[in-house]
Amino acid sequence: MTTIMPEGEEVQKAIKWISHNLEENPNQSLIPLVEKAVFKFDLSPKDSEFLMTFFRKRKSGGQ
Fold it and tell me: Over the stretch 8-48, which tens digit does the pLDDT of each residue have?
């Protein structure tokens, strides 16, 4: 599966942080995690949308 990674270092850190949290507790809701990541890594609304799309596709097995 090929995934295009965003160029922003903070977005990449957010992806790793969210992934780690989901590994520890796979049943937690994605929206609050993304919201926390937005504040933690000072991300833009565009970055937030990217994260939601990225993790929804990943969860559904999409590419």
Answer: 899 999 999 999 999 999 999 999 999 999 999 999 999 99
In a domain, 55, yes or no: yes
**Per the structure block, which two tokens stand in for 3?**
């995934």
Contact indicator for 39, 20 with CB cutoff of 8 Å: no
Burial level of 46, CB count in 10 A (0-12/13-18/19+)? exposed
Specify the number of domains making up the chain: 1
Q: How many CB atoms lie within 10 A of CB 53?
A: 11
Whether 44 is in a domain gets the answer: yes
For residue 40, the model assigns a pLDDT of 97
Model-level pTM?
Answer: 0.82
